[in-house]
Amino acid sequence: MTLQIVIDPADPTAPYEQLRTQISERARSGTLPVGYRLPTVRGLAEDLGLAANTVAKAYRALESDGVIETRGRNGTFVAAAGDAAEREAASAAQAYAERARRLGLDRAAALAAAEDAVRAVYTA
Length: 124
What we know:
The chain is mainly α and 124 residues long. Helix content is 60%, strand content 6%. The chain has helices at 15-29, 41-48, 52-64, 81-102, 107-122; strands at 37-38, 68-70, 76-78. Helix 1 (15-29) packs across helix 3 (52-64).
């Protein structure tokens, strides 16, 4: 299996974000299975024609999101991220609901605000 990543220089999205998104989507869909060893930062940067810092930034974001894990000198691997991502999303949703209630929003207003935010992010 090879990592098929395409960075579009004409896309207004930053290259590190394009990389982060593609790896994240493939890991969460199972296209990149748990335990799949990702290329080194330098190797992937060279393959994609990117600066090593750009790939490193994407890897750091993916690791922070629980999508990948670095095992020292052994490399970087796709983590079992589904459960971790769902737990983190549930925690963020709980914090949002509590904050909206403290602000005095009723349930319908809180849901509408959340739906607007999700729509804005997922259609961007």
